[in-house]
Amino acid sequence: MNSKNKMKLVAVVQYGEGDNKRSRWTNIGVAFENRDGSWNLRFDYVPTNMTDTTIQMRAFDPRSEEQPSA
């Protein structure tokens, strides 16, 4: 499968308040595109605090695949 039809799922967790607000990015799964343009999402992890979490589909970056994002 070519990487054009596959994306990584990342969770962006917000923590802290005011000037100390930060984001933490964590790889949580992978998405595969179907022939009809829809997507299948496969989660390795599901965030527990969904109120402060955004889930994004991102293209695979070969330079960063060796190290998970933190």
Keywords:
70 residues, 4-stranded antiparallel sheet, 49% strand, elongated, disordered C terminus
Total count of strands: 4
| Dominant shape | elongated
Helix content estimate: under 10%
State Rg: 14 Å
Instruction: Name the poorly predicted regions.
Output: 66-70
Count of DSSP H/I helices? 0
Number of separate structural domains: 1
Q: Main β-sheet: number of strands, strand sense, barrel status?
A: 4 strands, antiparallel
Kindly describe this structure.
- The chain has strands spanning 6-15, 22-33, 39-43, 53-59.
- Strands 3-2-1-4 form a 4-stranded antiparallel β-sheet, with no helix packed on it.
- It starts with 5 loop residues before the first strand and ends in an 11-residue tail after the last strand.
- Mean pLDDT is 83; it is low at 66-70.
- The chain is built from no helices and 4 strands.
- The chain is mainly β and 70 residues long.
- The protein has one domain (3-59).
- A hairpin with a 6-residue loop joins strand 1 and strand 2 (22-33).
Could you write a compact summary of the structure shown?
The protein is 0% helix and 49% strand. The protein is mainly β and 70 residues long.
Secondary structure layout plus pairing:
Layout: E1 6-15, E2 22-33, E3 39-43, E4 53-59
Antiparallel strand pairs: 1-2, 1-4, 2-3
